[in-house]
Design goal:
The complex is a heterodimer of chains A (211) and B (191). Chain A has 211 residues and is mostly helical. Chain A is built from nine helices and two strands; from the N terminus they run H-H-H-H-H-H-H-E-E-H-H. Helices cover 66% and strands 4% of the residues of chain A. In chain A, helix 3 packs parallel to helix 6 and helix 4 crosses helix 6. Classes of the chains: A mainly alpha (211), B mainly alpha (191).
Chain lengths: 211, 191
């Protein structure tokens, strides 16, 4: 497998949410705003790349029997760093993401990549794998957040004050947006529909390949 | 007394771990296709969430806060939970073998259940007192048990229902969970 395939597999073929269904808690909880999804994606990117880097670097030193506690320690350290940096520089985002920042520790994507990839491969491929997986993750939570915020409020908050208000673009209030989609129930239903669409596309692809 | 009732109602229903806090979604979808396994998982989570939140609260109040090392919370808690799960497992194996048999395979999985670390973080960061911690933690665990049990019963029924092929399995389960979240959200009017 070359590095390009290694990077791309995280985006589609082995996408952490769509294929392995890992890390669903934050994908449901913080996707009521596009901005939150981007912030979460950045946090996951940092933790995943750093932990993959360090674990792959130490893979020959870590004794096999205690590898899981060591992985957890490495991940928890980087999560604490992200937590402190966010609390210092991005207070508002830190407030809204709240408990889901420390919970990156138990996000199965990170431990899963450490166990399945970084502990067996060299540093460069591990870092590329981490970047690909994190981008694949961010892409999907971005799509969910985009759909939920748009359907829920008609506004897309890109980052901070930068936002796109569809009511203003049309020139009058669009009556079809409902806060249902930003509520917890909306989160489950949007994710369910997304999974359904992906499964439909996949089966169609299979049919056309069979022909 | 009214306080206690309010805490129980809000922890089990209004701020339900799965349907409104979004904690523990992975086991909620992963081990809910059979009622039997859902019961095992639910009981195991109730037990571990309750005990680990209490231990986390005590550690936080008497070690982390006095020494001003609150930033170590995440690291300390995850190790406490991992150790605790191991101890509970050994204890059950020795003392209540029948319960151990039914919970056995679910206990180790709980270490990475975000409901456990999540509730430990909630009770310490929101300055609960000890009584509130105990009630909140066990009630939240019970809320998890209740929802995963109802959900598994629904999923057993759905197996024989005519569902469009792409939506079979996880997608329709998620939509069902969404409908359950709508019902749970209505309980907010009680308190």
């Amino acid at each position: 497998m070359n590095q390009k395939q290694n990077f791309l597999k995280g985006l589609f073929k082995e996408n952490p949410i769509l294929v392995s269904m890992l890390g669903l808690c934050p994908a449901l909880a913080i996707t009521d705003k596009f901005e939150n999804a981007l912030g979460m994606g950045l946090a996951v990117l940092f933790v995943l790349v750093m932990s993959n880097f360090l674990i792959s670097l130490l893979r020959k030193i870590i004794p096999n029997e205690i590898r899981i506690p060591v992985f957890i320690l490495v991940v928890a350290t980087f999560v604490t760093i992200v937590d402190m940096v966010m609390a210092a520089f991005l207070q508002e985002l830190h407030q809204t993401l709240g408990i889901f920042i420390p919970l990156i520790v138990v996000n199965c994507i990170i431990l899963g990549r450490a166990e399945a990839f970084a502990s067996k491969n060299d540093v460069v491929s591990s870092v590329i794998d981490g970047v690909g997986m994190a981008i694949g993750y961010t892409m999907i939570i971005g799509v969910i957040a985009f759909a939920r915020e748009l359907l829920g409020t008609g506004v897309i908050t890109v980052w901070g004050d930068l936002s796109i208000d569809f009511n203003k673009i049309v020139g009058h209030d669009i009556p079809y947006f409902t806060s249902f989609f930003t509520s917890p129930a909306g989160a489950y239903i949007v994710l369910g529909v997304l999974f359904g669409i992906v499964a439909a596309v996949k089966s169609k692809k299979k049919v056309s390949e069979a022909k | 007394m009214t306080n206690i009732v309010t805490w129980i109602v809000s922890a089990t229903l209004i701020q339900n771990v799965i349907l409104s806090r979004f904690l523990g979604t992975c086991p909620f979808l992963g081990v809910s296709s059979k009622r039997e396994s859902a019961t095992g998982m639910g009981l195991a989570v109730t037990l571990v969430v309750g005990i680990s939140s209490m231990v986390a609260w005590v550690l936080d109040r008497y070690i982390l806060v006095p020494f001003d090392i609150k930033y170590m919370r995440t690291i300390v808690f995850i190790f406490v939970i991992a150790g605790l799960v191991q101890i509970i497992e050994m204890f059950l194996k020795k003392v209540i073998p029948s319960l151990y048999k039914s919970l056995g395979i679910y206990l180790p999985l709980i270490t990475t259940n975000c409901a456990v670390l999540g509730m430990a973080t909630v009770v310490t960061t929101q300055n609960f007192d000890f009584l509130k911690t105990v009630i909140y933690a066990f009630a939240s665990g019970f809320g998890f048990f209740m929802v995963i049990y109802i959900f598994s019963a629904l999923r057993e029924k759905m197996e024989t229902s005519p569902i469009p092929t792409p939506f079979k399995g996880i997608p329709v389960a998620l939509v069902t969970a969404g409908l359950m979240a709508m019902i749970i959200a209505r309980f907010a009017g009680i308190v």
